[in-house]
Design brief:
Strand 1 (163-170) and strand 2 form a beta hairpin. The chain has nine helices and three strands. It has 235 residues and is mostly helical. The chain is globular and about 55 Å long. A three-stranded antiparallel β-sheet has the order 2-1-3. Helix 5 crosses helix 6.
Amino acid sequence: MWEIRSFLFSFLIMLSLAARSVKSNGFKAARCLTAVRTKVTLPDLPYGYDALEPYINTEIMKLHHSKHHQTYVNAYNAAEEKLQGSFQGGNLTELIALQQAIKFNGGGHINHSLFWQNLAPKGKGGGDLPKGELLSAIESKWGSFDNFVGKFNAAAAGVQGSGWAWLGYNKESKQLEIATTPNQDPLLALEPLLGVDVWEHAYYLQYKNVRPDYLKAIWEVINWKTVAERFSKAQ
C-alpha cells in the first residue's frame, strides 16, 4: 500500500505543478519536476499464477499480470518521461496531450496493484467471510453479507464496456459505499477497500462474455483480510 500511495501522491504533485505552470504562462516549476518523478514497477504477486484455480485460471492470471499490468507500467513510465521533457521544453500542447496517457496508465497501475492484494488462494484466506467491524459495517449498510454481494455484482455487471467495481469508505459519512469507475480511472471520491476488475481481459478466456459467472466465482478468492486492514486504516 505504501508504494501505491507514494506513487499517487507524486502523481498528484505532478498534476499540481502542471496546473501552476499553465497559470503562470511559463514553466518555472519544471525545475522541481525531477524531484517528484516516480518510475513505477510491476509488483510481484503474493501467490503463483495457478494459485487461484479453478476460479481464475492460470492463463488469465499470467496474461493479466505479466502482460496487461506490465503494459500499464511501461506506458505510464514512458508518458511520465515525456512529461518531464514537455516541462523542460515549454511544450504546453504536449503537456496537455499527455494527461490522458498518465491518467489511464497510472490508474491502471494503481487499480491492478490493489486488485492483486484483494485476492488470495482458497484455503489461504481466499473466500473466507469478513469478520468483526467490517462485517458489522456491511450488515449495517446492506442488511446482510449476501445482500451486499448481490448489490455489488449488480453494479459490476452494469458497467458498460470496461471498468471497475469498488467497495469504498466514505470518510465524511463514515459509511461503506459501492461505486464503479470507467476504464482505468482510480477510485478517488472514496477510500478504496476492494476493487474488482471487470475488463474482459480479467475473465474472457475462462468465462467468455458471461461477466456474471466471473462475478459469482471471484468471491471464492477475495481476500477479506486485506480489505479489513484497509477499512481499519481508513477510519
